[in-house]
Amino acid sequence: MEHDLIITNGDAAGELLRRSIAGAEILPWRDVLHDGPVPFTEDLDELSAIRADFLASRGWGTSEQLRNDFEARDRGLAVSEVFDRVALWFEHDLFDQLQLLQILDWFEAHPPEPGKLLLVQSSTFLGTLTPEDIPDFRASEQPVTDEQLSLAALAWAAFRSDTPEEWAELMHRTDDALPYLKPAVLRMLEELPDQRGLNRTERQMLQPLLTTPLNPPQMFALSQRQEEAMFMGDWSFWALLDGLAFGETPLVEGLENAFAGPDDATATQVYLQSTVELTEFGKAVLAAEEDRYAENTMDRWWGGTRLTDENLWRWNADSRSLIPPGVL
């Protein structure tokens, strides 16, 4: 029997594949690369340490625990050569596509034997499947091509660049070696602030509040329904909501505290049951009468680009074009 390694997005898909494919080793990638710093580094170890520290700052665990988890994950990738086959199972959404780019970039620098590296690109969320669905997906595994490796390496470098320009250039490519890449490129660009200082997720958060106050889970559910391919987890969503609520000039009010996570169950319950409303400034920003960042400080990572007051890249959704810092 062949000894397979299957690399996939996270624990839900990983557990399903573990139950469904006898003898396979499963490696969940477990990183929200659309959230936080993904800069150029000397090697994978350095980037993993940066990612672990960022996730620790978000309450996912201690820095030491998360660094250990990333080190174990990266060791699993490094020993992939001992397996007969390595299959990458990833979905169509932004969360998965960024993970896929990172992994394909690694294999582009560490080429496997021809035909050993396989890919399943799914338009279905893997965690929603049943064990009975897996054989059909297994039959769809295809060898990764040189074109796919080259495109992934190009895109991964673009994502980690210190400006979003190279990433935006991917919108103009006509090849379809990675068919879900271009929608993911666009969706990531939409997470840059617009002329009002709101990214797409933030607009989706705030727009329903013009009609009625909502609690955070209701805001999350309504935002998810507007996505062509859902990609954002609730913890990343709460971080964006906190940014709207606790800046120098808030756009929303009603939250008693920032999201506390599992270490403070009482504060988390209070947070999730809070009634969120727009402030007058929030209404003005939504109406394009104010720029959020005329009254608030920007300091957020977007891939390898650190967005600051002095380096505030924006995205014009109508023209699908970047707005460089200082143009507005």
Write the layout of secondary structure elements.
Layout: E1 4-8, H1 11-20, E2 25-28, E3 36-37, H2 44-57, H3 63-78, E4 85-91, H4 94-109, E5 117-122, H5 134-139, E6 142-143, H6 146-159, H7 165-169, H8 181-189, H9 200-206, H10 216-225, H11 234-245, E7 252-253, H12 265-273, E8 277-278, H13 280-286, H14 292-295, E9 299-303, E10 305-308, E11 314-316, E12 321-323
Parallel strand pairs: 1-2, 1-4, 3-9, 4-5
Antiparallel strand pairs: 5-6, 7-8, 9-10, 11-12
Helix pairs in contact: 2-3, 4-6, 4-8, 9-10
Percent helix, as a range, is: 40-55%
Extract low-pLDDT stretches: none
**CATH fold descriptor of the largest domain:** Rossmann fold
Q: Give the CATH architecture of the largest domain.
A: 3-Layer(aba) Sandwich
Helix/strand order: EHEEHHEHEHEHHHHHHEHEHHEEEE
What do these coordinates show?
The protein has 328 residues and is of the alpha/beta class. The chain has two domains: 4-187, Rossmann fold, CATH 3.40.50; 194-297. Helices cover 42% and strands 14% of the residues. It has 14 helices and twelve strands. The chain has helices at residues 11-20, 44-57, 63-78, 94-109, 134-139, 146-159, 165-169, 181-189, 200-206, 216-225, 234-245, 265-273, 280-286, 292-295, and strands at 4-8, 25-28, 36-37, 85-91, 117-122, 142-143, 252-253, 277-278, 299-303, 305-308, 314-316, 321-323. The strands form four sheets. Strands 2-1-4-5-6 form a five-stranded mixed β-sheet, sandwiched between helices. A three-stranded mixed β-sheet has the order 3-9-10. The protein has a two-stranded antiparallel ribbon with strand order 7-8. Strand 1, helix 1 and strand 2 form a beta-alpha-beta unit. The longest helix is centred in the first third of the chain and has 16 residues, at 63-78. It is globular, with a radius of gyration of 20 Å.
